[in-house]
Automatic annotation (TrEMBL), chain A:
Top-level EC class: oxidoreductase
Official protein name in the record: Alpha-ketoacid dehydrogenase subunit beta
E.C. numbers: 1.2.4.-
Cofactor field: thiamine diphosphate
Keywords recorded for this protein, A-Z: Oxidoreductase, Thiamine pyrophosphate
Domain spans labelled Transketolase-like pyrimidine-binding: 4-179
PANTHER family registered for this protein in UniProt: PYRUVATE DEHYDROGENASE E1 COMPONENT BETA SUBUNIT, PYRUVATE DEHYDROGENASE E1 COMPONENT SUBUNIT BETA
Automatic annotation (TrEMBL), chain B:
InterPro entries documented for this protein: DH_E1 (IPR001017), PDH_E1_Alpha_Subunit (IPR050642), THDP-binding (IPR029061)
Domain of life (superkingdom): Bacteria
Protein source organism: Marinobacter azerbaijanicus
Annotated coiled-coil segments of the chain: none
The UniProt record lists the keyword Oxidoreductase: yes
Keywords assigned by UniProt, alphabetized: Oxidoreductase, Thiamine pyrophosphate
Residue span(s) of domain Dehydrogenase E1 component: 26-323
Cofactors that this protein relies on: thiamine diphosphate
Statement: the UniProt record of this protein carries the keyword Disulfide bond: no
Name of the protein described by the UniProt record: Thiamine pyrophosphate-dependent dehydrogenase E1 component subunit alpha
Length: 331, 344
């Protein structure tokens, strides 16, 4: 199978869906000729013109608001939010407006829009261009949240996001734009709410999202050399969440670590760990462990920044200890 | 007389007798709706927060009578007037205010989120200025998809303090979007005089973006309608956006519980607006003077509307609440599974 980058995969998904549905259009800062700072959208304006690939002013709440209105009245806008950190700027439009229209109208109004943005630290971008804020949107009923972990997921999830009749936030790892993965030439979509078992194992389950799937896979390779068999699962969408696949795995392995690049406090990892505790308690031989980003603003200095995110070595170390019966804090 | 089968004004022709009577009817329907809503609240039959539109009727009616059902509006927390003016029925409105299943939003929206998309009302909004993006986005959609509808964004003078307005007016002006920003200036930003929170001129804010702006008497339904018809036609012709400041007055407090308000607004001032500038009294006088209706005909019309409201309120009070099973329905819209298949 051919291999393409995550960036190319997103670009292909957008182009295919824009050819398929004339009501789709892209809206955001520097999306047209510039193709975004990450060049993910390069070439789209040549095919679809500036009417459907629209450069906006630097007005995030404004253009997200426009997308909500366009979606409410029959279009399918795809909003490009240049950095995930800017989600804070658009919270009212996303959470008070887009997320609630369907419910507040008793099912009469819908907002089929996509907000694509990114996450990920260790790019030396400082505290306001490095955050992984998926928890903020995952908390809000009415929004769906997809976190692609490779080029394959990026394309298949994007196509589903565009066709879904709800506001979908899809967050790409900005450090993975140049990473290649096998992506079929023929069309495919990845359904929401279906986790992917990346690697089967029997001793411990490593649940990773987005950038942390690679970290979990690398940890599994380290552990394999030591005779520990780790199962790696990528939920692919955190809303909806495929609880069944996660629970099935944990009931089998009896141990789990949940890894996500958002801050650990009150985070995605805590939510998933809690569901495992509630629904697989009697199957567990060890507490479910959370591994998120450190609860500090992301520092600039490379020496400091690298300490803030989970690494394969630290995941492997925790897995090793869980499997050895350590970290069980009996009173 | 109800507006159920209302046929809309042709926007490019002058109003006729029939149109004038409908404008009057719609204004009285708003006032009567609010009188009933206020009573329901004071009698403890209606819960939550509600904001009365009484006094501002000429604004909603003058503008909405220049629109077709296909044209969209976005409304505000003070939204009952816009909803009635855009063609909504009493029954579904009162049901919504009382949280009943037959309400426009199955009781899930309430007073501050009432929406009636069958007549192009995209909904009230409980965030001050919260719908400015939605209105402008609706206009962007019209332009991109080659549709000729116009969107009117209603908001109050208080909402001009929100930054969103300036972001969306900038884009609307850059892209010539068919949107009309209708600023209902009732002089008060919640419990504060607007002159204390708004520096400079309100219309100059729009003019800074190159948007043609008007400031007119919002108590004169004919004047509001005449300007609206012109601007709607120009929007359809690709000449939008526009900004209209409508000088008006809110008869009640910010919300129905805002009773003792002399610390920010005098009773004398309120009496002056009610006695000397009431939009319904003014228009009624004009109708009689022009021989369009007699006093008797108008009284009969008023009586009929009161009766309609009474019946709708009784219906809503007796109507069923939503089934408790609905609490987690409508969080997400359904997507046809076939749509999500490759090759489709």
């Amino acid at each position: 199978m051919r291999e393409i980058t995550l960036s190319q995969a997103v670009n292909e998904a957008l182009a295919e869906e824009m050819r398929r549905d004339p009501t789709t259009f892209i809206l955001g800062e520097d999306v047209a000729e510039a193709g975004t700072p990450f060049k993910v959208l390069s070439g789209l304006v040549e095919e679809f013109g500036t009417e459907r690939v629209i450069d906006t002013p630097i007005s995030e709440p404004g253009f997200v608001g426009l997308a909500v209105g366009a979606a409410l009245t029959g279009a399918r806008p795809i909003v490009d939010l240049m950095f995930g950190d800017f989600i804070y700027l658009v919270m009212d439009q996303l959470c008070n407006q887009a997320a609630k229209q369907q419910y507040m109208s008793g099912g009469k109004l819908s907002v089929p829009m996509v907000l694509r943005t990114n996450l990920g630290a260790t790019r030396r971008s400082g505290a306001q261009h490095s955050q992984s804020l998926q928890v903020l949107v995952a908390h809000i009923p009415g929004l769906k949240v997809a976190l692609p972990s490779s080029a394959y997921e990026a394309k298949g999830l994007m196509k589903t996001a565009i066709r879904d009749n709800n506001p979908v936030v899809i967050i790409e790892d900005k450090l993975m734009y140049q990473d290649k993965a096998p992506v079929p030439e023929e069309e495919y979509l990845i359904p929401f709410g279906e986790a992917n078992i990346k690697r089967e194992g029997s001793d411990i389950t490593l649940i990773g999202t987005s950038s942390m799937v690679q970290v979990a896979e690398e940890a599994a390779r380290i552990l394999e050399a030591e005779g520990i068999s780790a199962e790696v699962i990528d939920p692919r969408t955190i809303v909806p969440l495929d609880e069944d696949t996660l629970l099935k795995s944990v009931r089998k392995t009896s141990r789990a670590i949940v890894i996500d690049e958002g801050h650990q406090n009150y985070g995605i990892t805590g939510e998933i760990a809690s569901r495992l505790n509630e629904k697989a308690f009697y199957y567990l031989d060890a507490p479910v462990l959370r591994m998120g980003a450190m609860d500090v603003p992301v520092p600039f200095s490379p020496v400091l920044e690298d300490l803030t995110v989970p690494t394969p070595e630290r995941v492997a170390e925790n897995a090793r200890r869980l499997c050895a019966g350590e970290m069980i804090h009996a009173a | 007389m109800t507006s159920k089968t209302k046929t809309k004004t042709k926007t490019n022709t002058s109003p006729n007798k029939h149109d004038y009577l409908r404008m009057y009817t719609q204004m009285v329907r708003i006032r009567t709706f609010e009188d009933n809503a206020n009573q329901l609240y004071l009698a403890g039959k209606m819960q939550g927060l509600t904001h009365m539109y009484s006094g501002e009727e000429a604004v909603a009616v003058g503008i909405c009578e220049a629109l077709n059902d296909n044209d969209r509006i976005t409304s505000t927390h003070r939204g009952h007037g816009h909803c009635v003016a855009k063609g909504a029925n009493y029954k579904e409105m009162f049901c919504e205010l009382l949280g009943k299943q037959e309400g426009y939003c199955r009781g899930k929206g309430g007073s501050m989120h009432i929406a009636d998309q069958s007549h192009g009302n995209l909904g009230a909004n409980a965030i001050v200025g919260g719908s400015m993006g939605i209105a402008t986005g609706s206009a962007l959609r019209a332009k991109l998809l080659g549709q000729d509808d116009v969107t009117v964004c209603f908001f109050g003078d208080g909402a001009t303090a929100q930054g969103l307005l300036y972001e969306v007016m900038n884009m609307a002006a850059l892209w010539n979007l068919p949107v009309i920003y209708a600023c209902e200036n009732n002089g008060y930003s919640e419990y504060t005089k607007t002159e204390e929170i708004a520096a400079g001129s309100i219309t100059a804010r729009a003019e800074a973006f190159g948007i043609e702006a008007f400031s007119i008497d919002g108590q004169d339904v004919l004047g509001v309608n005449e300007l609206s018809r012109k601007l709607v036609a120009r929007c359809r012709n690709g000449e939008g956006p526009f900004f209209v400041e409508l000088m008006t007055y809110r008869y009640h407090g910010h919300h129905v519980g805002d009773i003792n308000r002399e610390y920010y607004r005098s009773k004398k001032e309120e009496a002056d607006w009610k006695e000397n500038r009431d939009p319904i009294i003014r228009f009624r006088g004009w109708l009689v003077e022009q021989g369009i209706a007699t006093e008797e005909e108008i009284e009969a019309l008023n009586e009929q509307i009161k009766q309609d409201a009474k019946e709708a309120v009784a219906y809503a009070e007796a109507a069923a609440y939503p089934d408790v099973a609905e609490v987690d329905m409508h969080v997400y819209a359904e997507t046809d599974p076939a749509t999500l298949q490759a090759g489709n």
